[in-house]
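Project outcomes to date are best conveyed with an example. Our students and postdoctoral researchers have been running inverse folding experiments weekly, and each run begins with a structure described purely in C-alpha cells. The record below, which covers 69 residues, was selected by the lab manager from last quarter's runs and is presented without edits.
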C-alpha cells in the first residue's frame, strides 16, 4: 500500500487483495445536487485527472454522474 507521501499523481493506485488496482484518491459526489452542478463537477474532476468517482443511488445524483462519465 502506498503512503500519501509516495503519491505522484491522481492516477496512482492501491492494489486490492484480488489484484485489481483502485485509484488512491477519489472524487466524492455526496451532497452535490443532481443536474448541472453534478455534471459540471464530475466533468471537471475527470478533466483534471480523477479516475475514481464515488457515487451511490442514495445521493440522488447518479444520473448526472453517469452523463458526465
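After processing, the design step wrote out the following sequence:
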Amino acid at each position: 500500500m502506498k503512503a500519501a507521501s509516495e503519491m505522484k499523481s491522481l492516477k496512482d493506485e492501491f492494489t486490492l487483495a484480488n489484484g485489481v488496482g483502485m485509484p488512491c484518491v477519489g472524487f466524492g459526489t455526496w451532497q452535490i445536487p443532481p443536474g448541472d452542478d453534478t455534471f459540471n463537477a464530475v466533468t471537471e474532476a475527470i478533466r483534471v485527472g480523477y479516475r475514481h468517482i464515488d457515487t451511490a443511488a442514495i445521493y440522488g445524483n447518479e444520473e448526472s454522474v453517469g452523463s458526465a462519465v
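The mean pLDDT is 91. Residues 21-68 form one domain. The training component of this project remains on track.
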